[in-house]
Design a protein that fits this description.
234 residues; 30% helix; elongated; alpha+beta
């Protein structure tokens, strides 16, 4: 139903509900990480930038991540809903989220409603700012399939999330140019987001690890700062 490129972070306090959401997300072709507390959410964000977050507003400490909720601003009702949030719309982000930063599902929550909300927010996630098109972009043995948002090293398929694919497209479009962490975050729509800037490093680390297994030992070159550009093996 959806593409494997989409990666969802699920932070729900009820382990049973959390597991059921993970199962249905993966059954529909997406990948998922899960967290049972706010500290794990922070760690997961630093490790890998998701395409969407499923956040339980009753999870202890989760209010630090939730976008403003006008209808409950005066009388917050923790634990009243599950919120499906775009990463650029987390609290503290300066990225414009539009009139609807997230979708809220009042309790009791049905797993199929969570899936429907994820689908509704995923529809507009392909930004025109990186010049993505349904064409193949090749640099050395690195091949990016713009029609299916898939990455290959030679003939080997390397799985990526939407954010990781966009990052690769940015570097491959300017193979000789170094990009700082902040510059990459700005291109991905989170220039000053204190939650997401560390996730750029996580994306780089994950991509280097996966491509190393595919035979590319130096996919992305690092400079102190940090700064990144496409490496020699690509």
């Amino acid at each position: 139903m959806y593409s494997r490129r989409h990666h969802i972070l699920i932070a729900v306090r009820d382990p049973s509900l959390r597991d059921r959401i993970v199962i249905v997300v993966e059954e529909n072709g997406m990948s998922a990480d899960q967290a049972g507390d706010a500290d794990l959410v922070r760690a997961q964000l630093a490790r890998r930038m998701p395409d969407l977050l499923v956040l339980d507003d009753g999870l202890p400490g989760i209010s630090a991540f939730l976008p403003p909720c006008p209808e409950t601003a005066d009388r917050p009702m923790e634990g009243s809903s599950i919120r499906i949030v775009r990463p650029g719309c987390l609290a503290g982000s300066t990225t414009s989220c539009g009139p609807e930063p997230d979708l809220q599902l009042p309790r009791p929550v049905l797993v199929r409603d969570v899936l429907a909300a994820i689908g509704a927010l995923l529809q507009p996630t392909q930004p025109p700012s990186l010049g993505l098109s349904a064409t193949r972009l090749s640099v050395g043995q690195l091949v990016l399939d713009g029609e299916h948002w898939e990455a290959f090293f030679g003939r080997t398929h390397v799985p990526t999330s939407a954010t990781e694919y966009r990052l690769l497209t940015l570097l491959a479009s300017h193979p000789s140019k170094f990009f700082s962490n902040d510059a990459i975050a700005a291109r991905l729509g989170s220039a000053r987001d204190t939650h997401l800037r560390p996730a750029v490093d996580g994306c780089i680390f994950a991509l280097r690890s996966r491509f190393r297994h595919a035979g590319c030992t130096d996919l992305i070159e690092l400079l102190p700062g940090p700064a990144y550009r496409l490496g020699t093996c690509a």
